[in-house]
Structure formats: structure tokens, C-alpha cells
Amino acid sequence: MGASLMIKAVVPLALWLLFASALLSLANAIPKTHNHDFVNTSALHGIRQMRTGWADGPEFVTQCPIRPGGSYTYRFTIQGQEGTLWWHAHSSWLRATVYGALIIKPRQGDSYPFTKPKRETPILLGEWWDANPIDVVRQATRTGGAPNSSDAYTINGQPGDLYNCSSKGTVVVPIGSGETNLLRVINAALNQPLFFAIANHKFTVVGADASYVKPFTTTVIMLGPGQTTDVLINGDQPPARYYMAARAYQTANATFDNTTTTAILEYKSAPCASKNCPTTKPIMPQLPAFNDTNTVTAFSKSFRSPRRVEVPTDIDENLFFTIGLGLNQCPKNFRSRRCQGPNGTRFTSSMNNHSFVLPNNISILQAYQQGIPGVFTTDFPANPPVKFDYTGNVSRSLWQPIPGTKGYKLKYGSKVQIVLQDTSIVTPENHPIHLHGYDFYIVAEGFGNFNPQTDTKKFNLVDPPMRNTVAVPSNGWAVIRFVADNPGAWIMHCHLDVHITWGLAMVFLVDNGVGELQTIEPPPADLPLC
Predict the structure, then answer these.
(1) pLDDT of residue 273
(2) Rounded to two decimals, what is the model's pTM?
(3) Omega before 403 cis (within 30°)?
(4) How many CB atoms lie under 10 A from the CB of residue 92?
(5) Host domain of residue 336
(6) What's the total number of domains in the chain?
């Protein structure tokens, strides 16, 4: 399951991490993931990778997969980041079990911008199938239907007390009366946004996606897959045992895993510790209903940067990307058992009506850096090819996207704004959109169709939060801004893995600037070959 990697950031600090052996040892417990002999890549989720895109990790985007028995050293420098990130496999659905925390501490001599916690605990929320997850996605790919839902969620690799036969391994997190502790919460689930709460305890949110935020208090948090949230908890309740619990936030009109995972927050002075009276149930938190979008919206709107920030203005690239699902008509040479989507179709997904297809014999970054033709095109549209009522009753003629490996070119230093617009095609849904190689400011979110005449007045250009993954509201929109100061090939995709499997992604191709410090480094000698 997950494993924690602790990193103390001394800026600039070059980190030389040999992940492959650990990843492959975990992957050996899973049957091979492809018909060929490629196994895995590892994404260092949220690391900026300034000029070191070769260490970013997504297969066939920045590298070819690591072969069984092989290794690859990820070389990168942490710059200006502090807080909780994570690492995970970025090949097929291997990240269902191959993931861990990646924690960047303050540099020596510096301190947190909040009360120093007595202890810190990574809380990794996961998703578990009573099956090989690779078989699950393979079956969905064969049939064209939706994959089977997971059978359980986990906290630090354990499902908890509410599932059959799992209570012996329930995770226990200690706390002392009067202590202030830091929980680093990571949603490593494959396909499900999750609520998280602790009975009778409040959270003070102090960070997200390795950026500090203006502290605010809440009783529940929601994380989309890929997102992290740092919270302080106080040991201010009567000494006892309290459940921490997570369960689904679901917006799509689709089946989902409606179970609840638990761990136990245990006061060290509790009169009934877990070993002494295991029949005494801890107190259970009140979690929101699975479809409580109002709670999610209020939580999301609470995020602010700690102080005034330099938000990009005078935008050079004003982009508008629709995101959502789609349905492909059944190919004439397919039997009906291969078209088990709605009404004999096959599920797909897209951005701006283009469904992303990965190369299979070279990475996009290699082809881009070396000028190799025929691997990708640079005609990803800046706006939807056809304007329509995005959150209304969409014409069926727009339900089948165009497949391709399309990128969008950005000049070094260009100031970019992207409107990310959910659509109601097949079903509206909350989409966690992650951009590799960059942090960005979320300047606004809303519901319905984005209206540039009225919604731009709602932009927060003073202290918007900085994130690397934005949860685009169901039947709504979000607007992000960043400066294209990191040359390379950077994928932007939905972090619901079923959606990236279906093609909800695109790639930004950022040109080199002037001089060595604005140019991507040469590929390392041990870069895996296809």
C-alpha cells in the first residue's frame, strides 16, 4: 500500500531518488499490467520539476515505462515548495496500490507559519478492489462500459472497522490532551472525491497542495483525487476514542462505492484504550450526504492565500476548455459485448471535444525536444470547436469526440488563463483537473455556463489560493491562471483515473526561453527506452 517519504527542503536542494526498485517490488504483487513487458512510471505529484520534465513521470508523456528489473533515477530540485505532496504510479491503474506521501519540511532554521505541531501524521485515503485493479480497467476497456466500483476505501492502507474481517488492522492515530497535531491528508483514491471528518473535532486548514493558506476552521474537508490538505487538530475533547472517517462525494449519475472507511483518533489518556476494551466502539463523526454540493462549495470558497499574491494579469493566452464524458458509436467490426455503454455505445471523455490518445513507442517530451515528427500535433483548440449550452441539454452530435494526440504550444513566459467548463454530456460531474509542472491560482469558481461579461467581476485577483489540482464544480466552471515559466511537455488531465483512461487530457508544449536557466535540461543517460 502507501509509504511515506520525508524530505527536508534546503532550497535549492537537489534530490536524487531511486524509486524504481521500490515501485517494482510493490508492482510484483500485481500481475503484469500490459501485454508487452512495460511495468511502470512514477509521478512526483505536484513537484514543479523546473527544467527537469524528464523526472515528471507520466508514461509516454515525459518518459517510456520502466521495464521489469530496470531502474530509473528521478533527478530534480525542489524550489519554493513546502508542505504535503505525494508520489504515485502513472501507468494504467497501478497507482491503486503504488503511492505514498511526499512531505517537504521547512528549511533548517525556518518554522511553520502556524503553531508548531506536537506530532505530524500523514493520512492517505485510498481505494481498494477485491480484484486486480488492472483486470478491472482491462475489462472496462474491452467492454466499453464503466469499470466496476471499488469494494472499500482505506486510511493508510486499512479499510477500518466498518468492513467485514478488517477491524484488527484499523489504523490508530495517537493524540494527547492539550496537544496540537498536524494531519497531512492526501486523497490517493483512484476515482472518487472523498469527505473526511473526525468525530467531535474541528480542523484548522493551513495548507493545500504544498502551499500555505489563510487558516480557516471547518468540521469536514473534501478532497478530489490528487489533492492534499494540511489540517491542525487540537486535543481538546474528553479523553476517549474517536473515529476519523471518509466516504464518497458523488456528483455523477452513476454507481459508486458508498462505503465508509475509518481510523481511530485515540487519546493517550483514554480510560478505555483499544487494547483494553476492543468491544467499545469509538464515537462516529457526522459526514455530509454523498451529494452535499453545498458543503463542498462552502469549503472550496474558504481557500485564500495567506497574503496578497502576484496574480498574472495582461493575459497572453485566454483559453476555454470544456471537460466531460462522451459516447462513441460501436464500431462496425465490434460485437455487442464490446459495446456495453449506454444504448450499445462505448464510454469516452474529452477536452474541447478531443479525446487524448497516448503514444506507444516514444514519449511526447522526447519527440518535442528532439523534433521527431508524427508523434503529436500542435492543433489542440484554444476554445470549443462548437459553442453550445454546456450545462444544458446537449445535442447528441457533440457526444462523440475526436481522438488524437494533440498539444497546445505556449511561449516561455506567457501569462495563461484557462476557463475549465464542465459539461452535462452523459452526466455532469465534479472533475479534479491536475496540471503537471505548474502550480496555478484559482481565481474563481461557479455554476452553470461561464459568462465572461458577468463572471469576470467575481475574480479574486488579490489572494486566490495556489493549487496544482482544481476540483471543477459539477455543472459548473473554474478559472485558473499561471505563467508558463517551465519549458517541457506537461499533461493536464482529470485525476479520476477512469477519465484519463477514456481520454480526458491534453498536453501543453512550453517552448524554451533564453539561456540555460530558461531551457529544459538534456535527457538523462538512464531515461527508459520504449
Answers:
(1) 58
(2) 0.92
(3) no
(4) 22
(5) 317-518
(6) 1
